Automatic annotation (TrEMBL):
The active site is at 153 (proton donor/acceptor), 157 (proton donor). Residues 130-262 form the Dihydrodipicolinate reductase C-terminal domain. This is 4-hydroxy-tetrahydrodipicolinate reductase. One of its GO terms (biological process) is diaminopimelate biosynthetic process. Keywords: Amino-acid biosynthesis, Cytoplasm, Diaminopimelate biosynthesis, Lysine biosynthesis, NAD, NADP, Oxidoreductase. It is found in: Cytoplasm. HAMAP family: DapB (MF_00102).
């Protein structure tokens, strides 16, 4: 990135677990400038209340945010679609980590961004270990059609299963050349066998002490393969978010998955 170009950034969901890390990352990144933060349920919009400089706009309505190059979203699954729609319509390049977008919603956002030739990124996971896990799982699924996913997260996680697990299941389903041995659609033990996502059982664990972890188990004739990734700290997501901020302004459409912008 050129020394003189600084991208202005707003952070949506700034008070949350990921929002707080993101605000710090942006403030410490010489290529980025934090100009605004957004969260709808605020008792104060005084930036000093949140340890922010006085020139940073704290908004409890998106329309109060200043214009900026980039909109980073770590909000909640129920709001992410409206937030990203707002961002694209107002010319912010979206960098979206929030889970919960339906495929049809992603398609709508893609069309909206394309109409404006606006680049953006939606990443189910900004951690390199998770991105690699998904790629390795896709590779393994060609030879091991029988797979199950166990995702493990902190107790504060609002959604289940995780966005990463859903994405992994979709990739496995697409990559496997044979059907799984057990037809999941006919499973009687519905709940104990997990949520079936594209024919792949996904099990969600919520425990104190955990941050974000995923394991994919493949079983074959007399052998098994396990692929696992662990995010022990939310710092693990920040280099991916920083990279996305650097790349989205050079894109002319909305892409899904960090792997699409990795060098
Ligand atoms: N892609 C990735 O790599 C990662 C993605 N995630 C995802 O990011 C999202 C956020 O995670 P996390 O930070 O742990 O969650 P938190 O619940 O800690 O934070 C969410 C924040 O969003 C705020 N919020 C509520 N409504 C809105 C809205 N309409 N617009 C903007 N902000 C809003 C909440 O405020 P209030 O509480 O006042 O309502 C809260 O402060 C989740 O979907 C999670 O799965 C998490 C980690 C990594
Ligand atoms: O809520 C989280 O913490 C995480 N959410 C994302 C997901 O649902 O996949 C990414 C990561 O697993 C952490």
């Amino acid at each position: 990135m050129s020394e003189n170009i600084k991208y202005s950034v707003v952070v949506s969901g700034f008070k949350g677990a990921m929002g707080q890390y993101t605000v710090q990352m942006v403030r410490n990144n010489p290529d980025l400038e934090l100009v605004g933060v957004y969260s709808p349920h605020l008792s104060s919009t005084d930036p000093t209340t949140f340890g922010l400089e006085k020139n940073i706009i704290v908004a409890n309505e998106a329309t109060q945010l200043p214009k900026a190059d980039i909109w980073i979203d770590f909000s909640v699954p129920s709001s992410v679609f409206e937030n990203v729609k707002f961002a694209i319509k107002h010319g912010y390049h979206p960098v979206v980590g929030t889970t919960g977008l339906q495929d049809s919603q992603v398609d709508k956002l893609h069309v909206l961004a394309k109409e404006q030739s606006l680049g953006g990124l939606i990443a189910p996971n900004f951690g390199l270990s998770a991105v690699l896990l998904m790629q390795f799982a896709q590779q393994a699924a060609r030879y091991f059609p029988d797979a199950e996913i166990i995702e493990m997260h902190h107790q504060g996680k609002k959604d289940a299963p995780s966005g990463t697990a859903i994405n992994t299941a979709k990739k496995i389903s697409k990559a496997r050349s044979q059907k799984a041995t057990e037809s999941m659609e006919n499973s009687n033990a519905k709940f104990a066998r997990g949520l079936i996502v594209d024919g792949v059982p996904v099990h969600a664990v919520r425990l104190p002490g955990y941050v974000a972890h995923e394991q994919v188990l493949f079983g074959g004739e007399g052998e098994a393969l396990t692929i696992r990734q662990d995010s022990f700290d939310r710092k693990s997501f920040m280099s991916g978010v920083a990279l996305a901020c650097k790349k989205v302004t050079q894109l002319s459409e909305l892409v899904v998955g960090l792997e699409n912008i990795l060098d």
